[in-house]
Q: What sequence folds into this?
């Protein structure tokens, strides 16, 4: 009996001296450049996850479309091939079609309105709640900003858009409104855009200011037109397969990290817009702050009716909520 006890005690002592198991590595893939706010947010998130899980998890960030473009990232997220991504709300519409409606033109006029809508919208929460069944889960809404145009030639209104081909990302609502403005549309991955503009395959592109600056699109399309046609935040998501593998404690830690990055992202984007515009102007960009927005708004009016034909009552739900937000926050 004593011999058995000694062996058991020895085994227990040996177990206590074994090294702690290695960190579990998690992959975070996105399409922004290293100097962009998306990368800064992802790196801060990685730091917080490691801290809040006491080192049990380490997040490896893959920027610059290394693991795929936005649709590919979201596809891999649902399959469990990557663990995290962050992309424009409309990019998730391939899995959750009604999210196309967040890309309707001119429904949000300011950051304060956009933050209130994304934080308080009952309609949007109902859409986000459908995500786990599609293979991913939204953790927080990060920021990218308002979408604007960069073109090779001056752009002031729809009359300047006619006959011009503009690159955009694969989103039905974006295609509808850009075509309504008069553009021809070319869908292509973000890393291909600079060269496509440089070679004349497209006349320009549309994206938030931070994305325009980090990808240096103003170098080949120097006319930066502040249309603010769509408010385009970037919900951050985790693979549902990854989420289900986490303990409740680690789920809480990851959620906390994602949500703490949101105000950092929001303030970084809002605070940097003017600085980035000034920097682009200093490098030769021509900033058009007063395009004919009324003409652009008039041109896209048919888009709302077209959306109703496909999405029905959801369109009026979004328009009602955003109208209330515009009324409350001026």
A:
């Amino acid at each position: 009996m004593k011999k058995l006890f000694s062996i058991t005690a020895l085994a227990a002592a040996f177990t206590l001296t074994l090294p702690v198991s290695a960190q579990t590595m998690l992959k975070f893939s996105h399409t922004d450049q290293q100097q962009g706010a998306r990368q800064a947010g992802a790196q801060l998130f990685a730091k917080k996850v490691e801290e809040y899980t006491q080192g049990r998890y380490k997040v490896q960030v893959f920027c610059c479309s290394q693991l795929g473009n936005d649709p590919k990232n979201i596809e891999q997220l649902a399959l469990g091939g990557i663990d995290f991504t962050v992309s424009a709300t409309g990019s998730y519409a391939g899995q959750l079609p009604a999210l196309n409606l967040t890309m309707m033109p001119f429904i949000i006029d300011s950051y304060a309105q956009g933050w209130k809508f994304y934080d308080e919208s009952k309609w949007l929460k109902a859409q986000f709640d459908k995500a786990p069944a599609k293979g991913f889960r939204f953790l927080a809404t990060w920021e990218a900003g308002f979408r604007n145009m960069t073109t090779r030639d001056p752009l002031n209104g729809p009359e300047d858009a006619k006959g011009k081909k503009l690159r955009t990302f694969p989103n039905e609502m974006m295609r509808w409104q850009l075509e309504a403005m008069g553009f021809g549309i070319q869908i292509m991955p973000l890393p291909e855009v600079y060269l496509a503009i440089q070679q004349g395959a497209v006349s320009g592109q549309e994206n938030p200011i931070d994305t325009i600056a980090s990808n240096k699109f103003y170098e080949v399309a120097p006319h930066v037109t502040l249309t603010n046609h769509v408010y385009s935040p970037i919900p951050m998501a985790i693979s549902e397969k990854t989420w289900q593998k986490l303990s409740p404690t680690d789920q809480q830690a990851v959620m906390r990290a994602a949500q703490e990055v949101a105000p950092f992202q929001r303030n970084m984007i809002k605070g940097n817009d003017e600085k980035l515009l000034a920097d682009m102007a200093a490098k030769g960009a021509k900033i058009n702050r007063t395009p004919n927005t009324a003409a652009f708004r008039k041109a896209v009016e048919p888009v709302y009716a077209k959306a109703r034909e496909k999405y029905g009552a959801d369109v009026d739900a979004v328009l009602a909520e955003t109208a209330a937000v515009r009324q409350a926050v001026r």
